[in-house]
Each structure stands twice: as C-alpha cells, then as structure tokens.
Design a protein that fits this description.
The complex is a heterodimer of chains A (278) and B (147). With 278 residues, chain A is mainly α. In chain A, 73% of the residues lie in helices and 0% in strands. Chain A folds into 2 domains: 172 residues, NADH-ubiquinone/plastoquinone oxidoreductase chain 6, subunit NuoJ (Four Helix Bundle (Hemerythrin (Met), subunit A), Up-down Bundle), CATH 1.20.120; 82 residues, no CATH class. The longest helix of chain A has 26 residues. With 147 residues, chain B is mostly helical. The longest helix of chain B has 31 residues. The chains are: A mainly alpha (278), B mainly alpha (147). Chains A and B meet through helix 4, helix 5, helix 6, helix 7 and helix 8 of A and helix 1, helix 2 and helix 3 of B.
Chain lengths: 278, 147
Amino acid sequence: MDPVAATTLPIPGLLLAGSVAALAASLWLLLPKTSDTANSRRLGLFLGAVGLVGFAATGRSLGCVGEDAVFLTVAGIAVISGLATIVTRSPVYSAIWFAMALAGVSGVLLVLGAQFLGVATIVVYAGAILVMFLFVLMLAQPSGMAPYDRVSNEPMLAAAAGAVLLGLLTLSIGRLSAAEPPSCCRMPSRAQAMAAAAGPTAGTASEDDGSATLIAPVTAGVESVDADEVAHLGAELFGRHLFAVEVAGVLLLVALVGSIAVVSRGEATETDHRRESR
Amino acid sequence: MIPATLLTNALLVGAVLFCLGLVGILTRRNLIVMFLSAELMLQGVSVTLVAWSRYHGDWGGQVLVVFVLTVAACEAAVALVFVLQAFARTGRLDASAWQALREENLPRVIDHGLPADDRVVPTWPHLSPAGVLPEGDDSRSLERDHV
C-alpha cells in the first residue's frame, strides 16, 4: 500500500476545524442578542454559508457520494431550515421554518428508501404536531414581539459547545467510514447469510398459507428502493413488535386524557359545591 | 440496502440537525422555540436510525422511529398544555419567568439592556360597527369550568 495514502487522515482536519468554527461564529452572530446590527447579521449569514460549504466539502472528502444532487438538495434544505428555526426571532416564523426542515428531513428519508417514514414525517409532524404548535402560539402569543425573544442565554458558549460536538461526531463518523470495509465487499456475505436464514422460511411458506412470506427477512442485494417497503415495515411492526404497538396506543390514550385533565381544571362549579357539601 | 457512502452522508446530516437543536434548546428562552429545538434533535436521531436501519437491512431502526413519532406526539400534547397553563399564570412564554424554581445556590438571572420593543403599531382601517358587541368577561377567557 502506498505509505502516503496509509498515513493520510480520512478527514482533512484543517478543513473540518475551519468549517465548524465558521458555523459556530455564524450561529453566535445570528442568535438573538441585544447588540444585533444588520451588518453582524449579514456577516453571520456569510460565515454560515462558508461553514456549510466547508462542511459539505469535508463530508465529500470522506468518500461520500456528494454528486447525488437530490440528496444534497434535501439535506441542504433540512440543515438551512433547521438553522433558521433556532435563530429566527418570531416563534411563528420559527415554527414555519421547522416545517421546512421537516420537508427536508422527509426528503432525506425518501432518498434513504424509507418511504413510509418519509410520508409519516410530513403527515404526523407537519400535519398534526406543528399545527398544534401554531394553535398554542396563536392562543398564547402576547401582542408584538416579546423582549425575551430578542435575547438568548449564553449564545457564545452554546454555539461553541454545539460546534465542538459536531466536530467530534464528524470525526467519529469519518473513523467509522474508514474502518468499515467498502460496501461492495461487505454486502454479499450478509446477503448469503440472509438468504440462508430465509431459506427454511420460504420453504414452509406454502403450508403456512403464505403468511410467513410477509415476515421473511428482506433479501439483501436488492436495489435501494424496495417496492414492498411499507408491507415489510407493517409486518415487522405488527409481528415482532405487536406488544410495543399496544403499549404505544395506551401511551397515546393516557397522554390525551392527561392533557384534557390538566387543561380543564377550572373553577369549581355549582355541581362540585353540591357534591362536596353532601 | 444503501451504500456506505450514503450512510455516511445521512449520519452527517443527522449530526448537524442534532447539534443545531442542542444549541437552540440551550440558548433560546421562548418555551415553544425550546420545544421546537427538541423536536429538531429528535429529527436528527430519526435520520440516523433510518440510515443505520437501511444500511443493515434491518427493520428495527425504522420501527424505533415509528415509536419516536408516537412519543413525540404524546410529548407535544402534554407539554403544550403545560406551556398554556404557564402562560395563563405569568402572561409570558419566557422560561426565565419560572426561575423561582431554580436551585438555592444558583444566581438569579437578571436581564441587562433588554432591547426596547420597537414594533410598529399597525394602523387598521376604520370600519363602521355592525351589530352589537356580545356581553362577556375578558378575564375569564382562558378558563373553562367544563370540558
């Protein structure tokens, strides 16, 4: 092996450090502070763009696809909207930026081939949870922009902590991708193992009225987009994890009852007085 | 099954989303924005879980994300009720409005040089009143004595 290539780090450390530092400075400049000016915001936007481009270059040098324009687009939407969610002053705009971030995350999930979760993220998060947030904002928003939306707690320390965590995570991800063998060597062995595991199941499928084929493990080596992804996920969810699904249903019910019980604790009515005096 | 390069890309996106949510929940003081930041962290974790699940061809990660969605819905319902109750008591969505609950040895947060509220008062068009205003007590608009 070439000694130069062997000693080369999988990640260009200087590029990573620079881009993460630029991201931290941009976060510190963009977060609401008392000393905000238009120029500091512009500088923050510029530094943020520089940091994101540097970070994308770092990820690309990990041997990543990078040419996958669809992934790059949806990931960029998710990250930029996430950034805007936490730096926007108005909480309503913050919620709307979060909806954009959800759209980006849903696109990432679709690119990864998780079709059900991509759609469920839009339907459940953006359709239900986010609308609930907006309802509460409409109910609880004092008129105008509140002063506590224009200041933040320790923006410099928090941005530095986030940048350090991001750098460490990227380093460990880079080490992981360096340690893992290339996917072309790895997949066939796993595919053979899975095919061996699926063999007896497929054999008994004819006697089992075909129900066993539903919960058979995914045959490896298929293309990235699985046509029966939703069916497989449903079979796994209601087969192996049926008890957990029931527990989740009970959790939903308890949360519903609990929230109604907390919110409807008003003044005692006449009926209550009558009941107590009896 | 996805290639390892796509796995690395998705892990990086998940890490960035998680760190952004962390910074948001540490710095912002609006209770609802703090909550949105926590949801952003959950999104980062979801992306990571789905990426690993697709990489290994194992459905456990995606099943876990389904439960993350469920718990997030429950959490949002319960926590938003508490936020509404807190707003009804203090009239603010400020986390520092509840600093009387802090530890004894921690200093009190005092805001210095809060920016003035320089919002523009909108000028609404003058409309001639139609009908009669309904009788009502505004102070009780946030309370309900029955469901």
